[in-house]
Every structure is written in C-alpha cells, then in structure tokens.
C-alpha cells in the first residue's frame, strides 16, 4: 500500500525531472540535473531544451542529435518575426561559434549589435553526432534590436532550427518548429495543449458543408443546441479547421434568442451574412490561424446550460481572395465538457472595437494605432473582490503589428494586462497570463497597431480579412455577467445618431447593451513607465521616449537624428533629422556618405518669405556641383522655420537607407555623415533647384545609430520627451576642416617642394657634404610628410575614408619612405666599397623616384577627395606639374648621362671624374674619400 503510494508520487516527479519524453537523456552531453526544467522541442525527442530560471539571468541548455548549426529563439508568437535568437555552429576555422541574432521577419536572422550582454555562452560543442550548448540570457533584455524578455514567470514561445550543415542559413523545411513552454512554476489556468481529462464528455459543434461563393469574404452562421443540462462546463477545445480558406471560428453564447433564430436549428448554415444580424452576444471562444487545442487546468471550466445559455452560434469566416470557384467547406469544433461542478467558473470578456465597421485608418503609415476604452462605470459591475485574468486572445487581420491592454487604476497606469508585439496573422494564440488581478473601477485601454504602408486609400474596419479588426478576448474568473466593455460612436452605425463617443457595457443579464456618457474618454491619467518589455513600450508612447543624437560640428551649426524603433525592424523605415544654423549662413547641408561625390545630401536655405526654410535634396555625381535629387522622399515637418536668427529644418526621410550611389543600414553602429556650409547672403528662394555658390567649409563625422534608435514614428523634434544624447564622436570634429587644410599643406610642401629638391640636389650639386645635405633634407621632408600623414589618418578614421585610394597610397608612401635612410646608408657604404650600384642602390633610388611622383599625384587625389574648390586644384596642378616636370627632366637627363659615361671605357676607378661623381651622387664622397 505504502509502496504503491510512493510509486504514484514518484511518477509525476520523475516525469518533471527528465521531461515528458520517453527517450533516455543519456545522449545529452551536459549534466541535465543542473537545470530545473526540461522539454522536448521536436516530435522525435531529438531536440531537448533545459532551463533554470534566475533573478536577472536564466540559463538555457539545448542539445540536438544533429551535426550542424543549432538555433534557439525567444519569440513573442511562435513566429520568426521579432525573435531573439541564440545560434551556434562550427565556424570556418573549426572553432565553436555562438551568436546572438535577431529575425526581422521570415528571413535569415541578422547578427545582433550586442554580442556580450544579452546572451553569454557558457559551454558548447559538437561531438558524437550531437550539437549542444548552454548559455545565459538576461531576463529583461536591453532595448536593442528585437532583444526579447524571457517570460520566466509564465509561458514562453520558443522556436528552434537545426541542420547537419554548419553554414548558417535559413533552415531547411522540417528541421524547425515552435513550442509554447511554461518556464515558471506559477499557476496558469489555460494550457495551449490538447490534454485528456478523465470523465469528460465530447461535444462537436458542426457547420455542415456549404458551397462557398467566389466572393472574397463569406461568413456562415449555424445555430447549435448545447447538451441539455442545468449547468455543465466546457473544459477543453479541439478545433478542426479543415478548409484552407477558413479565417476564423467563433462560438457565441445566445442568451434567450428570439424564435426566428431558434428556427435556424437543424437548418443549413446561413451564409447571407450581409443581411444577417447575429443575436448571440456572449463570446465563448475562437479559433484563428496558428491556434492549437486548449485545455483548462483541472478545477476550471466555462459554464453552459439552462442557467446560462442553451444555444450557441458558430460563426465561420472564409476568406477567398483568389475567388476560387467550386470550394466546399464544413467545420467541426469539438469541445470537452463535464457535468461535474468545477471549483472555479471562467468567463470571457470582450474588449476592443465591437463596432466592427464604420471606422478608418490612415494609409501609408508604418504604425497606426486604434484604441478603445473600457470605462470604470462598466468594470464597477464586477464583484467587489475583482476578477483574475488567465489568458488573452488578441485578434487583428493582416496589417496587425502590436496589441496591448493597459490598465489605469485610480488615475494611474499600472503594469499592462498584456502587451504583444510582432503580431503575425498566421501565428495567433491564446496568450497565457500569470493570473492578473483586475479591480472594479479599473479603466482598460485596448490598442491595436497596424502597418498601412501598403495602402493608398483609408483602411476600413470590417469583417473582411482585407479590412481590419481589433479585439482582445480575456478569459477570467470568477464568471460574472459583464460580457463586453468598450466605446462606440452611434453615428458610425446610424447616420441619424449623434457623432460622439459613448461607453458601452454589455451584460448577459440585460436585453440590450447599456450605453452612456463617460468622463473617462477625456480624463487624463498619470502614465507610468509600464513593466514588461520597456523596449516595445517606448514605441507605444505617443510622445517622448524618442532617442535623438545631436552633433554640433561647428559651434553654431548642429545636426540631430532619430530613428524610430520600428524602422530598424521593418522595411526601409523612416528617419528623422534636424539641421540648425544661424541666418549668417547662406546655406548649410547635411549628407549621408563618406564623400560628397557619393553622398545623399540635404541642403537648407531660407525660403522666399524669409520666414521659413527650403530643404533641397541634392546629389553631386562625379565632382560637379550638387544638383536637385527628385528621388528623395523627404518632408519638411512642424517646427521648421526661421526664428531668432536661427534656421531650423525638421525633416522626415522615407528612403534614406538607399540612394543611387550609396546606402546606410539603420542598424549600423558607425555611419559616416558629411556637412558643408557657406556664409553670406540669404538665398531666399522656395526653388529646390536654385543654383548655389560653393561651400566655404565642410567636414565629416560619425553617428552610432544605436544611440539614435528609439521612440515612435513621429516628429521627435517637437515632442518634449525626446531623449537627446550628444554624440560622443562630435568632439574634435569642428577642427576637421582646419586639420584637412594642414594635412594638405604639409604633404604638398613635402612632395612638391622638399623631396624633389633633395633628389635634384644630389644629382646636380657637387660639394663635400652633399650626402649629408641630401640625407638631412630628406629626413626633414619625411618628418613633415609623417606629420601630414598622421593628420590624414586621423581625418580618415573620422570620416571613414581610409579605404579611399588617396589614403591607401598615402599610407604605402609613409611606410616605404620610412626605410629610405637605411637603404640610402647601405647603398652609400656599398658604393664606396664596390664603386658601383648594388641592389640597395636601385631600391633607394627608384623607391625615391616612384615615391616623389606618386606623392605629387596623390596630392591631386587628396584635393578631389576633400572636394575642395577648383581654384585649389588649379594652383596645386600648376605647382606640382612644374616641379614634377623639372624633377623628371633632371632624373632622365641624369640616367642618360650615366648610361653614356658607363659605356665609355673606364678610366682609373680611383680617379673618377667630377662628372661621374654627379652621375651617381653618392660617388662624390667616394672619390673625395671623406
Ligand atoms: C465532423 O464530424 C462528423 C461527425 O460528427 C463527421 O462525420 C465529419 O466527417 C466531421 N467533419 C470534419 C470536417 O471533420
Ligand atoms: C506589403 O506588401 C509586400 C509585398 O506584397 C508584402 O511582402 C508585405 O508583407 C506587405 N506588408 C503588409 C504590412 O501587409
Ligand atoms: C483610489 O484612491 C482613493 C483615494 O486616493 C482610495 O481611497 C481608493 O481606495 C483607491 N482605489 C483603489 C481601487 O485603489
Ligand atoms: C465626428 O467628430 C469628429 C471629432 O469631433 C470629427 O473629426 C468628425 O469629422 C465628425 N464626423 C462627422 C461625420 O461629422
Ligand atoms: C522600464 O524602464 C523604467 C525607466 O527606465 C524602469 O524604472 C522600469 O523598472 C523598467 N521596467 C522594467 C520591467 O524593466
Ligand atoms: C515651415 O514649413 C513647414 C512645412 O510646411 C511647416 O510645418 C512649418 O510650420 C513652417 N514654419 C513656419 C514658421 O511657418
């Protein structure tokens, strides 16, 4: 007896420790007992996940019977979109590589900026046909690039992928999957799982087969009589979506339907949906693409029966965008129920916009919010001890992006009921909540956010999948008679009604909804930073929270930049920037790029009225003056203008990630920007193509875009909450122009004046200390050149131009000429000894000659790179050309004479003529025998 009891207790305990699989875990390369939990990710038990929750970090271990890359993602919905992923594989050099990546959609996840803070590898490897690794992850992620929080007190969606290939790419179909896993030990009521419950009965709600029309949208209604009982309880559901065209299933409870509706019983489904008004107002449950079966924990159930409702209406929505003909569909929705009284009765509260149509959203926006308020007057009707929410189902259509239900209690916002980001239409699910308490008098704000970038016309709310919906269905206990709580505008349904916002409270105890005015639509509340994922909440805030970097490369010229959070995750997102400068400037320009010749430029000058500014997008193909660029999608925003002698342009750019001659990733931590200006008379023109005079100053700087990323997609320069950080790279930039001038001047002196003079000297002059004069002068020239080179490298580092040919040639010269004194000395010594040129001689002489010519040419390249005026280039060309011509003539003449002399019969080598001294320069001391 005692033994039997023990065995019974041990079984579930053992199952917890080694997971629900019947597989042995002997193949796991690490010690599974270091973890608190284990779950099988794939259907074969060949991918095993282990976890141990911690206060700040949680530890995860994953092992797969495969010999290639292995990836584990923390996802919001079970989709790849927005997932924060740990990826490991054997790299090219044979070492084990671990990376934090993030997925912006159903594409190969990108390497994250942060490789050290969010996730840390603790152990890992590939051996004996098994790939495995253990890592630590922050529970609260940083607000960077789709890093996700770990729901360590509740349920977490995991996605995984594995392969036998070590090259990381998008997984092959089949080697991937998703699992909703309960990480915490907290009590959750609603399980996304088809569990069998002993002593339960089955009930199938059937929509008999109908022939679907070719219309895009069809709704069918089928009335069902629930099993006769005073009171029974739905405890689980097994939706069986059998048609690929099925968009949703909803089961409504009918509270005392009129006879005309009861007549529908046993009849064919009513698919004349446009003329049908569904009388059943109680929401029981829904299936939508992505949803699994569900089961309540033991002791919980949703009541039905004569004490509640006897009839239910099944609504099926078919979506046939291709207008397929001859489609037939039937649907079964099976439920588990029990007639045993459950300990806790569950109800469902409908939140969101119950006025399905009549409203519209702006097209062409990356994120449009649609909110409805559930008023305190309605929640006051809950029992005095309040209710406990156990799960929420957020529903939107294709454009849905984020959804949330916020709670305002007593004038202050508290932690939200739910906040779901990266919604995916095909991955809808019932989100398990960690028993969230709601009190009478709470105000609930339900918001859905949509991406309408693909739309050109206003997007309507409506029943078609092409239109949008916003619902949040909350399962809670204990059951009460409030079925729905929202706001409506009576005029949307009936043009003769007033155009106003009123509250609606729907109760099963009343025949019709209660409609009343409420101050909660206008009353303000204190908005606290909500708990949960702060990163996403930033983008939820209407104002404030925007991250702005600001750089003032000259003391009176400043530039600012903001990248809305969503721009880094979806498509070619918007960016916002600001130019500001006093009216003492004729124009000021900001440009993306490393060089004016390939830059995406925005030029600000005063408008015709002299009261506002004109912002002209320009490009400078080749080295011409910048011309108007009509491809730039920019808008001058509010806050732009001229005030107190300062010109300000607040700008939104829609396509600044790519332009004809370049691109900029919004996730780059180091991006190159340029600026230019001209002091003088105002331009005073509205013409974006107006010819402008050449700049009198310019420079470059870098911005770390991660510091500029955050906030909603709205003009951040008018919101007080914008979070401005000065760009750290701004320091020292204002000296760039002067530095570039010094660099150019010093290098020109070295290559146009000093080096050639030193070389000509040794060819033409003839005096005792000639070799010392030559050496001394060239070493001095090199010192000047090295100073110029140092400045050049500093500038190149700042404006990311070190890969330019000018910089590369400069650095090669700097390196090669460094060895000239050494080569010169050896050459000189050997020449004295052997009285003839050696390899060292040729190395010294020709490195010098090539170096001088290359240096002169490189000066021209430098002027081009710096995009200086034509005048500078002309002056330089004249001087460099003249000196170059003299230098080359002397060298050619010298070689010619040398060839002639050496072809003559040699006289005594010890009495080399003065001429031959000159021929080799170095020989002069040879003969004078110092
Ligand atoms: C629905 O259930 C009925 C029995 O209740 C069965 O005959 C039918 O095949 C089922 N249909 C589907 C689509 O599963
Ligand atoms: C917009 O259209 C593109 C191309 O058809 C599609 O890939 C994308 O998902 C659409 N975006 C939305 C928000 O519907
Ligand atoms: C709301 O605030 C009032 C006074 O500030 C307090 O008496 C009341 O208990 C509060 N209600 C809730 C639900 O916290
Ligand atoms: C209804 O009121 C809103 C807000 O006051 C207004 O923007 C809208 O134009 C009005 N609609 C009609 C049809 O008058
Ligand atoms: C969110 O940010 C605020 C302000 O930075 C902070 O006080 C709060 O603790 C954060 N919430 C979480 C859950 O990290
Ligand atoms: C300048 O023009 C912009 C864009 O049209 C506008 O938003 C802004 O209010 C104007 N500023 C002034 C001072 O008129």
TrEMBL record:
Signal peptide feature range: 1-17
One of the record's GO molecular function terms: oxidoreductase activity, acting on paired donors, with incorporation or reduction of molecular oxygen, reduced ascorbate as one donor, and incorporation of one atom of oxygen
Ranges in coiled-coil conformation: none
Domain (Cytochrome b561) ranges: 705-899
Transmembrane segments: 745-765, 777-795, 807-827, 839-861, 873-893
PANTHER family, sorted: CYTOCHROME B561 DOMAIN-CONTAINING PROTEIN-RELATED, DEHYDROGENASE, PUTATIVE (AFU_ORTHOLOGUE AFUA_8G05805)-RELATED
Compositionally skewed regions (Low complexity) per UniProt: 902-916
Pfam families with a match to the protein in the record: CDH-cyt, Cu2_monoox_C, Cu2_monooxygen, DOMON
Cellular component, GO, one term: membrane
The UniProt record lists the keyword ATP-binding: no
Annotated region (Disordered), positions in chain: 902-930
Record's keyword terms, sorted: Disulfide bond, Electron transport, Glycoprotein, Membrane, Signal, Transmembrane, Transmembrane helix, Transport
Keyword Cell division: no
Protein name per its UniProtKB record: DOMON domain-containing protein
All copies of domain DOMON, residue ranges: 45-163
Compartment annotation: Membrane
Cross-referenced InterPro entries: Cellobiose_DH-like_cyt, Cu2_ascorb_mOase-like_C, Cu2_ascorb_mOase_N, Cu2_ascorb_mOase_N_sf, Cu2_monoox_C, Cyt_b561/ferric_Rdtase_TM, DOH_DOMON, DOMON_domain
Lineage: Eukaryota, Fungi, Dikarya, Ascomycota, Pezizomycotina
């Amino acid at each position: 007896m005692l033994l039997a009891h023990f065995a019974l207790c041990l079984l579930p305990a053992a199952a917890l420790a080694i997971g629900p699989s019947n597989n042995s875990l002997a193949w796991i390369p690490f010690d599974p007992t270091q973890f608190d939990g284990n779950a099988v990710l794939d259907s074969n038990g060949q991918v095993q996940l282990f976890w141990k929750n911690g206060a700040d970090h949680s530890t995860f271990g994953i092992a797969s019977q495969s010999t290639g890359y292995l990836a584990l993602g923390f996802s919001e919905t079970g989709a790849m979109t927005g997932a924060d992923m740990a990826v490991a594989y054997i790299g090219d050099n044979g070492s084990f590589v671990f990376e934090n990546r993030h997925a912006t959609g159903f594409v190969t996840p990108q390497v994250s900026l942060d490789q050290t803070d969010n996730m840390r590898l603790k152990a890992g490897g590939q051996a004996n046909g098994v790939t495995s690794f253990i890592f630590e992850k922050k529970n609260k992620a940083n607000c960077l690039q789709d890093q996700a929080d770990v729901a360590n007190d509740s349920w977490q969606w995991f996605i995984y992928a594995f392969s036998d290939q070590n090259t990381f790419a998008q997984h092959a179909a089949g080697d991937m999957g998703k699992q909703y896993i309960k990480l915490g030990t907290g009590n959750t009521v609603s399980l996304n799982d088809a569990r069998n419950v002993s002593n339960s009965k089955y009930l199938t709600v059937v929509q008999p087969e109908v022939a679907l029309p070719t219309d895009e949208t069809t709704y069918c209604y089928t009335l069902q009589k629930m099993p006769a009982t005073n009171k029974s309880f739905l405890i689980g559901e097994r939706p069986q979506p059998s048609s690929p065209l099925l968009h949703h299933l909803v089961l409504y409870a009918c509270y005392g339907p009129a006879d005309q509706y009861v007549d529908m019983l046993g009849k064919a489904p009513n698919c004349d949906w446009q003329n049908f008004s569904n009388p059943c107002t109680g929401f029981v449950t829904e299936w939508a693409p992505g949803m699994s079966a569900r089961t309540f924990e033991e002791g919980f159930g949703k009541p039905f029966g004569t004490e509640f409702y006897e009839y239910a209406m099944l609504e099926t929505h078919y979506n046939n965008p291709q207008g397929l003909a001859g489609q037939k569909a039937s649907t079964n929705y099976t439920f588990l129920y029990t007639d045993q009284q459950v300990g806790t009765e569950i109800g469902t509260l409908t939140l969101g916009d119950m006025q399905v149509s009549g409203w519209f959203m702006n097209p062409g926006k990356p994120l449009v919010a649609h909110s409805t308020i559930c008023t305190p007057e309605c929640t006051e009707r809950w029992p005095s001890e309040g209710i406990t929410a156990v799960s929420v189902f957020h529903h939107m259509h294709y454009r849905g992006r984020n959804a949330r239900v916020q709670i305002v209690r007593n004038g202050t916002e508290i932690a939200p009921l739910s906040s779901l980001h990266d919604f995916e239409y095909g991955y809808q699910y019932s989100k398990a909540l960690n028993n969230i308490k709601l009190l009478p008098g709470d105000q609930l704000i339900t918001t859905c956010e949509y991406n309408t970038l693909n739309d050109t016309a206003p997007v309507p709310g409506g029943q078609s999948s092409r239109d949008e919906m916003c619902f949040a269905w909350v399962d809670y206990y204990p059951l009460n008679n409030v079925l729905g709580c929202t706001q409506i505008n009576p005029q949307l349904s009936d043009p003769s009604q007033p155009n106003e916002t009123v509250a609606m409270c729907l109760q099963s105890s009343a025949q019709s909804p209660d409609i009343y005015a409420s101050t909660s639509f206008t009353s303000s509340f204190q908005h606290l930073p909500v708990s949960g994922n702060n990163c996403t909440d930033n983008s939820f805030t209407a104002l404030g929270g925007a991250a702005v970097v600001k750089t003032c490369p000259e003391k009176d010229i400043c530039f600012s930049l903001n990248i809305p959070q969503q721009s880094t995750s979806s498509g070619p997102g918007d960016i916002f920037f600001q130019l500001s400068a006093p009216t003492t400037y004729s124009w000021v320009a900001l440009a993306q790029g490393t060089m004016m010749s390939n830059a995406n430029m925005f030029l600000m000058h005063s408008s015709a009225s002299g009261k506002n500014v004109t912002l002209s997008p320009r490009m400078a193909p080749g080295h011409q003056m910048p011309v108007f660029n009509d491809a730039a999608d920019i808008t001058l925003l509010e806050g732009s203008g001229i005030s107190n002698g300062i010109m300000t342009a607040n700008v939104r750019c829609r396509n600044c990630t790519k332009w004809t001659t370049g691109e900029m990733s919004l996730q780059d931590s180091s991006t190159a920007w340029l600026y230019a200006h001209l002091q003088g008379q105002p331009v005073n023109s509205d013409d974006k193509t107006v010819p402008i005079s050449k700049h009198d100053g310019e420079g470059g700087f870098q911005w770390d875009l991660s510091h500029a990323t955050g906030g909603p997609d709205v003009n951040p320069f008018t919101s007080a909450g914008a979070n401005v950080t000065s760009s750290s790279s701004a320091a020292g930039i204002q000296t760039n122009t002067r530095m570039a001038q010094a660099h150019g001047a010093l290098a020109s002196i070295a290559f146009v004046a000093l080096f050639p003079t030193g070389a000509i000297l040794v060819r033409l002059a003839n005096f005792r200390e000639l070799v010392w004069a030559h050496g001394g002068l060239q070493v001095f020239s090199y010192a000047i050149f090295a100073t110029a080179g140092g400045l050049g490298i500093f500038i190149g580092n700042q404006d990311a131009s070190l890969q330019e040919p000018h910089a590369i040639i400069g650095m090669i010269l700097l390196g090669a000429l460094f060895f000239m004194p050494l080569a010169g000395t050896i050459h000189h010594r050997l020449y004295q000894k052997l009285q003839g040129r050696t390899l060292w001689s040729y190395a010294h002489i020709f490195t010098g000659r090539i170096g001088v010519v290359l240096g002169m040419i490189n000066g021209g390249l430098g002027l081009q790179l710096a995009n200086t005026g034509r005048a500078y280039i002309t002056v330089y060309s004249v001087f460099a050309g003249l000196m170059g011509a003299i230098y080359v003539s002397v060298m050619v003449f010298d070689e010619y004479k040398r060839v002639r002399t050496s072809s003559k019969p040699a006289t005594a080598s010890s009495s080399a003529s003065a001429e031959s001294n000159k021929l080799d320069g170095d020989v002069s001391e040879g003969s004078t025998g110092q």
